[in-house]
Amino acid sequence: MSIDILQGWTDAAEALRRGLPWLPALAEVAPTPHQVLDQRNKARLLRYRRATAPRWRTPVLLVPSFINRAYILDLTRGFSLVQHLLDRGLDVFMIDWGVPGDEDRLIAFDDMIEPMLARAVRVTCRAAAIDRVAIVGYCMGGTLAICHAALHPERIALLVNMLGPVDFEQAGMLGDWTDPRRFDPDLLADAYGNMPPLLMQYGFQMLRPLAALSKLVKSLGGELDPDAARFFDALDRWSWDNIPFPGDAYRRYVRELYQRNALFRGTLQIRGRLVDPRRIRCPVLTLCADQDHINPPAAARALGSLLDPATAYDEICIKGGHVSAVVGPRGQKELWPALSSWLERTLAI
Asked: What is the rounded distance in angstroms from the CA atom of residue 46 to the CA atom of residue 120?
C-alpha cells in the first residue's frame, strides 16, 4: 500500500472526525508562554516564562523524542508537564526538534547529540548563568540524554531517563520487528530518504491494533466533561502529528541500538568517542511505565546496571503506558509529582 493512499485515508478520516457535531472545538496545544533562545536548522531551544524567579538555580532541560512533536510535554491547558514543573518553582527549558524536510535526510544520529543536544545544554547553562543542568529525556530523548551525560558528565547536575530505552534486547515487539535477519533499515532509507511519519505511525498502531478503536468507543460512550474532551482532542492531534525520521539517523539508530544493542553492550561511539555510562557521576533517576509496549520497563531499568556503583541511582515505575503515564490524569497524579519531588529533593542535597 502506498504512502499516498495511507495519507488519503488519514486525511479523510480526520475530516470526517472534525465534522462530527458532538466533538469539541480544537484544543489549544503548547499553551505555555515561552521564548526561543536558540535555533539550529529546524531545532529550537525554548525557555518557558515565569512570573516569579525560580526557587532552584539549576535549570531543567527537557529532551523529547525526535520523531514526535515536542508539545506532548506541554500538551494543553491543565495537562502540561512543563506547567507543572514551572509551578513547582523550576526553571524549564525544552528542545523542540522541529520538522525535518527532505533536505535533512543526511542528518546523522551523532549530530543529534553532538552538536545539537550539546549546543542546547551550553545555551541553557549560559541563559541560567550556571555550569550544569538537570536533563530529563523522554522516550528516544532519554537515550540521547544518557549519551550526552556519559560524554560530558561535567555539564550534568541530574539525569532523568523518562521511559527511554537502554537495553534494546528488552525492546519487546519493536525489537522483534527490527531483527536484522528480516529487517534492513537501509532499504527504507534508500527508498524514502527520510523515514515517512505515516509508516512509523502505523507501525506503532500495530503494536496495539485495537487502541484507536477503544479510544473512539470511549469518546462515543457518553458526554465528556470539557476538560476531558479538550485533553482527548489534544492527545489525538498529537498522536497523528508525527514527523519524519532523518534517513541517516534512522539507519544508525536501528543498526547500532536495536540490532547491535551497542549502548547496553558498551560499544556505542559518538563521533569516535565511546559512550560509557560509568562516567556519569550525577544522581540518576529512571522512570518507567508498567504497561509500556514501546519501551518495556526492563529496557529502561537496564540503565542502573551500567552505572558506576558509587552513582546515586533511583527507579520509579508508574502505572500506565508509554504515553498515558506521562500525560493526562495518570501523569498528573503519579508521574509528575514523582518527577518533581525527586528533582526538588535531589537539588536540595
From this structure: 9
* Bridge partner list, 39: 44
Query: Which pLDDT does position 64 carry in this prediction?
Result: 97
What Å distances lie between residue 274 and 115, 133, 176, CA to CA? Answer: 16, 22, 27
- 8 Å CB contact between 90 and 55: yes
Cα separation, 299 vs 170, in Å, equals: 5
* Residue among 347, 326, 348, 343 at smallest CA distance from 335: 326
Alpha-carbon torsion angle 36, 38, 43, 46, nearest 10 = -40
Angle CA 177–182–183, to nearest 5: 65
Q: Residue 330: which of 343, 342, 317 has the closest Cα?
A: 317
Q: Give yes or no for a contact between 112 and 142, defined as CB atoms under 8 angstroms apart.
A: no
Q: How far apart are CA 63 and CA 141, in angstroms?
A: 5
CB contact at 8 A, 138 and 335 = no
Regions of the chain where pLDDT drops below 70: 1-25, 199-224
- pLDDT value for 12: 46
Measured CA to CA, the distance from residue 295 to residue 73 in angstroms comes to 18
Quick one: DSSP state of residue 155?
G
Q: How many CB atoms lie within 10 A of CB 6?
A: 15
Judged by phi (left if over 0) then psi (alpha if -120 to 50, else beta), residue 131 lies in alpha
Contact 330, 318 (CB under 8 A): yes
Domains in the chain, CATH or no CATH each: 22-347 (3.40.50.1820)
**Residue 317: which residues within 8 A CB-CB, separation 6 or more?**
287, 288, 289, 290, 297
Burial of 342 (0-12, 13-18, 19+ CB in 10 A): middle
Rounded distance between C-alpha atoms, residue 343 and residue 307, angstroms: 19
Specify which residues 158 forms β-bridges with: 134
d(CA 65, CA 163) in angstroms, rounded, equals 10
- 36-71 pLDDT, tens digit per residue, is 999 999 999 999 999 899 999 999 999 999 988 999
Enter the pTM of the model: 0.89
